[in-house]
Specification:
With 268 residues, the chain is α/β, with parallel strands linked by helices. The chain has a single domain, classed as Metallo-beta-lactamase, Chain A, CATH 3.60.15.10. It is globular and about 60 Å long. The structure holds zinc ion. The site of zinc ion (ZN) has 4 residues, from loops.
Length: 268
């Protein structure tokens, strides 16, 4: 089952638990109630939609969205930032660099807004009895970060995971991406909010990881045997995606990984 996510519009919010409000959409958004304040993870690409999301979350949790954490700089996750200029917008230093380099124009007459809480590698929000960890791992893009709340048993992966295809390591280091997937499955979690597609369980991510590791093993094996790109693609087709979503890897991603590991092996 391969799901087409391209035309997916924002749907009705889903309250996953007392303190978790999930907004499935083109790029998923989630708001966590931290007690006297709330945290929003990614803010979407459309200011009108983000305005609605913000007011729905603030009226349900009866507090203000004080924190906005960003998983990576892509516009479908960050374009509504101008709406959150009164919040602590948390992002990795690398994300801010990419966002500034992208030179995007905000919608209508909104001012340009950039993250105002910038971290290297890791940041922890401490708010009443919650601790939220935001960590840059790389993967989908070098600035890709996850947001993990042990209290809510929730992990947001950004685009390091989708429910249609895998593209970790296409614009970044595939080993860093695999390392991030391994870290995800080490967490105590009930909800994995992925960048695009439906909520996943840890078991699903375990199956994705198993599949990715099998593909990596094949590529390394074929590299050692000096097989060419065509042979690697053919062999890749024999390795079947697994799990509920059967998230697959495109041939050109397999070739990107092959080129990456070829270079890495030759340089060591
Ligand atoms: Zn992205």
């Amino acid at each position: 089952m391969v799901k087409n996510l391209k035309n997916k519009k924002t749907q009705q919010p889903i309250q996953l638990s007392q303190d978790i409000l999930y907004f499935p959409g083109h790029a998923n958004i989630v708001v966590l109630n931290l007690g006297s304040k709330s945290l929003m993870i990614d803010c979407g690409r459309n200011i009108t939609e983000a305005t609605k999301i913000r007011s729905e979350a603030e009226s349900l949790f009866k507090n203000k969205i004080e924190y906005v954490a960003l998983t990576h700089f892509h516009g479908d996750h960050t374009h509504s930032l101008p709406l959150f200029s009164d919040c602590q917008i948390i992002a990795s230093n690398q994300l801010v660099k990419f966002l500034k380099a992208a030179k995007r124009k905000p919608e209508r007459n909104f001012p340009l807004v950039f993250p105002n809480v910038v971290f290297e590698e890791k940041y922890v929000i401490k708010e009443s009895d919650s601790e939220i960890i935001i960590k840059q791992t790389g993967g989908h893009t070098p600035d890709s970060s996850y947001v993990y709340s042990p209290k809510h048993k929730l992990l947001a992966t950004g685009d390091n995971i989708r429910s249609d295809f895998l593209w970790g390591g296409r614009h970044s280091d595939p080993d860093k991406w695999i390392f991030a997937l391994k870290e995800y499955v080490s967490f105590d979690i009930n909800y994995i909010i992925i960048g695009h597609g439906e909520i996943m369980k840890k078991e699903e991510v375990n199956l994705i990881l198993e599949y990715v590791l099998e593909v990596k093993k094949m590529i390394i094996d074929f590299l050692e045997k000096n097989k060419n790109e065509k042979e690697i693609i053919l062999k890749g087709k024999e390795i079947k995606p697994r799990g509920e979503f059967e998230v697959f890897i495109h041939d050109d991603t397999i070739i990107k990984w092959y080129k990456f590991w070829k270079k890495k092996i030759r340089s060591t």
